[in-house]
Amino acid sequence: MTQTPGTSTTTSAPSLSQAEDATPGRPLVSVRGLTKTFGDHRVLKSIDFEVPVGTVTVLIGPSGSGKTTVLRSLNVLETPDTGVIRIGDVEADFSTAVTKRQKKALRAQSGMVFQAHNLFPHMKVLQNVTAGPILVQHRKQADANSDAMQLLRIVGLAEKADQYPYQLSGGQQQRVGIARALAIKPHLILFDEPTSSLDPELVGEVLEAMKGLAAQGWTMVVVTHEIRFAQQVADQVLFMDDGIIVERGTPAQVLTAPSSQRARQFLRRLLDPL
Ligand SMILES: Nc1ncnc2c1ncn2[C@@H]1O[C@H](COP(=O)(O)OP(=O)(O)OP(=O)(O)O)[C@@H](O)[C@H]1O
Ligand SMILES: [Mg+2]
Questions:
Q1: What is the pLDDT of residues 82-128, one digit of tens each?
Q2: Which ligand is nearest the CA of 36, by number?
Q3: Ligand 1 atom with the shortest distance to the CA of 240
Q4: Residue 138 has pLDDT above 70, yes or no
Q5: What confidence category does residue 199 fall into, taking pLDDT thresholds of 50, 70 and 90?
Q6: Which residues surround ligand 2, an ion (CB under 5 A)?
Q7: Quick check: helix, strand or coil at residue 82?
Q8: How far, in Å, CA of 200 to CA of 225, rounded?
């Protein structure tokens, strides 16, 4: 996907996204030498990758390989030990002292969609989507509402704006979670196994919503085991094992003809778990 939201002619993301980077040709995201240790466990052992603007990166790998830790580092929910993360114009070098302000600025560059749709149960759908813009970004309620309605239309849930989360299916709740992540107008959207807690028949609608976002040019990093989604939507696939990116390339390279034994074994198990 190369179309940027700013050039989209659809009714959706353009006015809502800030995903265009100021420097042409420069990747939106650059991660260099990222390391993270929990206790004496080196969870990330020098991770490097780039994400061009308007593209989809899919991160796959066995349980415990460090995928969530990479996403949480990008969103600075985790503070890396060393390494440089740049998203848009905000860069932090974690080998040096990074201030709270720098962390906050970096965090504001991305929105995160978690495995389970952790919506506020006491708030209606619309309020769930506008909470970040109004409470954190201090945006006017009328503007936040109209942007939120536009996002709910994108994920196909405009008619549910006035309902409470318990009145929605799991798939619908997860799509509200996606609208909520987009509402803060991030440069980058991070998805951590967004369909893994859903019943199988609800997975498709969430993947379709994500495909729609990709087609509109949102820049996305997605941890998922949905290989068909990766094949259809990813621009690059990163295969992680034990804190290292072992393999990277197009879906055809990594998913269809992986060169490492480890990736071949992982994909075989994924496609044929029994
Ligand atoms: N806060 C933490 N404290 C201690 N260890 C942690 C913490 N977070 C993650 N880990 C460990 O780091 C390793 C990588 O975890 P991570 O959640 O990044 O893996 P993952 O690839 O996302 O796995 P999964 O596919 O199961 O979600 C695991 O061994 C995990 O137990
Ligand atoms: Mg994980």
A1: 999 999 999 999 999 999 999 999 999 999 998 876 899 999 999 99
A2: 1
A3: 21
A4: yes
A5: confident
A6: 68
A7: strand
A8: 13
Q: Which atom of ligand 1 is nearest to 61's Cα? A: 21
Q: How many CA atoms lie within 13 A of 261 on its CB side?
A: 0
Q: How far does residue 70's CA lie from ligand 2's centre (Å)?
A: 9
The protein residue whose alpha carbon is closest to atom 8 in ligand 1 is: 69
Q: Of 170, 168, 131, 135, which Cα lies nearest the Cα of 151?
A: 131
Copy the structure tokens of residue 82.
Answer: 């060393």
pTM of the model: 0.90
**37 alpha carbon – ligand 1 mean position (Å):** 10
CA atoms within 13 A on the CB side of 54: 18
Residues 140-150 pLDDT 10s: 999 999 999 99
Looking up tokens 């405009």 gives: 158
Residue ranges around ligand 1 (CB below 6 Å) = 38, 43, 61, 63-69
> 224 CA to middle of ligand 2, Å?
9
From the CA of 37, the nearest ligand is: 1
Please state the domain extents for the chain: 5-112+187-271
Split at pLDDT 50, 70, 90, the class of 8 is very low
- Architecture in CATH for domain 5-112+187-271: 3-Layer(aba) Sandwich (3.40)
Which class for 200: exposed (0-12), middle (13-18), buried (19 or more C-beta within 10 A)?
Answer: exposed
